[in-house]
Design brief:
Helix content is 9%, strand content 28%. By secondary structure, it is mainly beta. It has a single domain, classed as SET domain (Beta-clip-like, Beta Complex). It has a four-stranded mixed β-sheet with strand order 1-2-10-7, with no helix packed on it. Strands 3-9-8 form a three-stranded antiparallel β-sheet, with no helix packed on it. Strand 1 (5-9) and strand 2 form a beta hairpin. The chain is globular, with a radius of gyration of 16 Å.
Amino acid sequence: MTRRIVARRSPIHGNGVFAVAPIKAGEDVIEYKGKRISHEQADDLYGDGAESGHTFLFTLNQDWIIDANQSGNSARWINHSCAPNCQAYVEESETGDTRRDRVVIEALRDIAPGEELTYNYGIRLDVPHTARMKKLWACRCGAAACTGTLLQPKR
């Protein structure tokens, strides 16, 4: 199988993931992998995460979080964008075992070789979105409609 993506330094932030072959809209690009941990384990290991401004944790469901700090793959390097070319979705296990649910990154549109893959992280924190918090969670995507922060409006 031809390799379609590669991780390398990103102009957006740190590392990023880039297409090295054409990717069609609707195609699954990569699964977000890592160790399954409970929400309580994540809190014990990393606190509530609000003060870090950086995370490799992906909420899988009410029971589990994927910790890409442990056994993660290159999907953890896909950067956030306010105008993403990919989206993340949860594929529920056919057996109903929530630990076996998966997160898959899918192309929202055709992606050309050389383009950086991005998705909206959808980060929602229960803490007030102060100027300090927005700066801590600053967005560097450079999109015309960039909100300036990775934090999403509270529902």
